[in-house]
Amino acid sequence: MTHDPLHDPVFLNEVRRDMLRFAEMQLRDKAQAEDAVQEALAAALQGRENFSSQASLRTWVLAILKNKIIDALRHRVRERAAVDVESDADLDVYFDQRQHWAEDTRPSAWETPQQAMENKRFWEIFEACLYRLPEASARIFTMREVLGFDTEEICEVLAISNNNCWVQLHRARLTLRACLGVKWFGEAA
Description:
By secondary structure, the chain is an all-alpha fold. The protein is built from seven helices and no strands.
């Protein structure tokens, strides 16, 4: 019998802790964050046979969580606006009229193991730099650059002005650039 990390309590505790931290930063609601994490873990367990091992199990589970968070944030917007939207309308942007991948949304090729290790280390440093940002800047940056929200959606969800959003994004980018410059690129502080 092979070892399955999804049934390993040490792995689950470790990944759950990271997932909860990320979800709380995005959702700003402990109960909603916990729900998103539980739903993501349940989906991972249920869809385990769909895991192709091209990415790490941790990355795959975090990708599921990212989708749960996006769903929760979009649900908040829909509740506030009280507008009925078709559930599959968001998928249309990924496909052309013949239902093939749209040119700019095609899945990319997987990286080599060496690239994956370098990439993993980079993202660990990036995450450490991200968690050093002020809470509001980190949340806005992650919504825009990681979760793919447009500025209008961010402003609506967070009830902030467009100008405030751009100022926060600018500050976050500058701070992240400085942190990565020191921690990843080895530049002088």
